[in-house]
Amino acid sequence: MKLYGYWRSSAAYRVRIALNFKQLSYENLPVHLVKNGGEQHSAEYKALNPTELVPTLLDNELSLNQSLAIIEYLDQMYPQPRLLPDDAGAKAQVRALALDIACDIHPLNNLRVLQYLTGPLALSEQQKQAWVIHWLEVGFSAFEQRLVACAGKFCVGDDVSLADICLVPQVYNAKRFGLDMTAYPRINGIVEHCQQLAAFALAAPEEQADAQ
Ligand SMILES: N[C@@H](CCC(=O)N[C@@H](CS)C(=O)NCC(=O)O)C(=O)O
């Protein structure tokens, strides 16, 4: 398998964790999101993934985008260890938490959105920062509350799931933007547990060959 990603991309970080968790080997192909106006906009990458976003996973002839679809594909192809529980209720909880991050938090502070704020909309760096922190706080406050009903050692019970795989990169991202995490003790505890696992530690941005 080949993974087109970027060391700091939280969506690519999710896929790296899943690949590691399932002990699958892959070739990492860096797409620099900033250099030369962003390699994700190059004709070569656009031909591979017209959304101009990373990650893209190639598995022989199959080309997939959307980190959650990629991870569900891996979970179905390589079911052990599971990233989505069998139980219908637990599975829905895992998916809902993953989507809370992937749909309702992450896109609001994605690079192209922030570039649009400071470019065409002419917001200052300070206004951009306020936007990022506001949406992180809204999202994390709800997530912290949602954990009351379902968390154990990890987001849903005591097994690692897709929800944890989404949470850890989003927290990395939030810390990069300077969010004060003290209001989220449950999130912090889960992230600490995850980071003790090799699958998470080896997927960390700073561990990647293209990290600068
Ligand atoms: N929903 C997509 C999001 C992909 C995405 O937004 N990737 C970001 C990096 S985390 C990206 O490529 N940004 C480039 C840009 O905004 O130009 C997924 O989960 O794969």
UniProtKB/TrEMBL annotation:
One example of a Gene Ontology biological process annotation: L-phenylalanine catabolic process
Span of domain GST C-terminal: 87-212
Protein keywords: Isomerase
GO cellular component: cytoplasm
A molecular-function term among this protein's GO annotations: glutathione transferase activity
Domain GST N-terminal span(s) in chain numbering: 1-82
NCBIfam families xref list: maiA
Sequence similarity: Belongs to the GST superfamily. Zeta family.
Protein name: Maleylacetoacetate isomerase
